Amino acid sequence: MTANVRVRVDGRDLALSNLDKVLYPDTGFTKAEVIDYYARIAPVMLPHLRDRPLTVTRYPDGAGGEGFYEKNAPAHTPDWVRTVTLPAKGSTKQRDRIDFALVNDLPTLVYYANLAALEIHVPMWRVGADGTPLPPDTLVFDLDPGAPATIVDCCRVALLLRDALAGDGLTGCVKTSGKKGIQVYVPWERGHGTAEYARRLARTLEAEHPFVTSVMAKRARPGKVFIDWSQNNPAKTTIAPYSLRAGRLPTVSTPVRWAEVEACDSPDALTFTASDVLERVAEHGDLFQPGRA
């Protein structure tokens, strides 16, 4: 492996390590390429991360190895990374509080990329200037297909959600999960109550369409699209826009246009890798905004 390389990023000194280590074995995609992707995608990604407590999935042995979730900022986190200390709701490690990092700038994003944090997850709420949680500013529907259903079926359900939301005066935008599903996001200015609203809408669509379920149990999902409304729980996170996913390919949770959702006719139609996404952003800018897609 290469020795550490010291770089200066927006006035911050970072030591990058093992840059030639392959993190996606099937394609030879290296740690250097992961860092390069996150550095180049930062202008459109950072606004969606700003002031949202961070959870990452790190893969020090690559996407083919065993990964681990990390909420607590590592002990060696630079002092220039902004952190907030919040109650540890539902902690599996019996912590009372967690020191969350906030990815508010390019150096912090590069720092985490260097930790092989392939996947970046954030909640539907932000913290204020004093570090206290604010009400949710986003509503999310996570659409997951139960085989033999595919992302094509998820797109059908996303369009149903779009129409139902429009009836309530809400406009959403859509992105792939980077794996097999679709996620519909909606800007939310109605305070708390996102989970209740999402559950009610999911159950309405379940009652109207036999290929939709709002039930999490695996036995209820074969051949159907599960609308996971529970992601609106303030203790939960979803994969961030433009985040890489750990898998065979360096796929990305990619914002797409509604016209692409309407046209989706094969399971591979909305699969995008890091290089694809950089090209899309160069051509279209940030599509993860209502009205842009």
TrEMBL record:
It comes from the Bacteria. Residues 30-288 form the DNA ligase D polymerase domain. InterPro entries: LigD_pol_dom, MtLigD_Pol-like, NHEJ_LigD. This is DNA polymerase LigD, polymerase domain protein. The lineage of its organism: Bacteria, Bacillati, Actinomycetota, Actinomycetes, Streptosporangiales.
